[in-house]
Amino acid sequence: MSVQAYLTAAQAKTGKTIDDFRTLAGEKGLSRQGEVVAWLKEDFKLGHGHATAVATTLLNPERFDAPAETRIQALFTGNKAQWTPLYEHLVSLAQSLGEGVQVSPTDTYVSLTCRGRKFAVIQPGASRLDLGLKRPGAETTARFEAAGSWNSMVTHRVKLTSTAQVDDDVRDWLSAALHGA
Known about the structure:
Blueprint: H1 3-14, H2 18-28, H3 33-44, H4 48-59, H5 68-75, H6 84-97, E1 101-105, E2 110-114, E3 117-124, E4 129-133, E5 145-146, E6 156-160, H7 168-178
Antiparallel strand pairs: 1-2, 2-3, 3-4, 4-6, 5-6
Helix pairs in contact: 1-4, 2-4, 3-4
């Protein structure tokens, strides 16, 4: 889920906006991430992911004020700038595979979502770009390894260093992740 999806779900469950939570946390004197998360889980019965998204947003509003494109550009700076063409190629491919594909940047990677469901993540590194795919039940291969502890939001990972590696196999896995197969 994207941060916005967590926030929307938390508001639907509690009837409270981020500003409401900010006011209530201030009244309680809560100002640290851990204590706000614990409070949200206890008093509002939010799950850990939802509570973390709400806490992060209310404690660090500036983090989410920058436009998505600015946040994406920040991910691809320094030695990670070399992966920009590969990133753009993957996003273009995903968008060609189905309508409604959106990008949602975090501080370390970009989520690819469709109809509010995350199906892939793209994370630039110093020596490669990692494409994580959500394919529960799909067998791992030498190329499409288990994501393991790399990113718990996806099930598989493929390590890429050039657009030439974005072949029919990558296209098929990306399409299957997008369409929930």
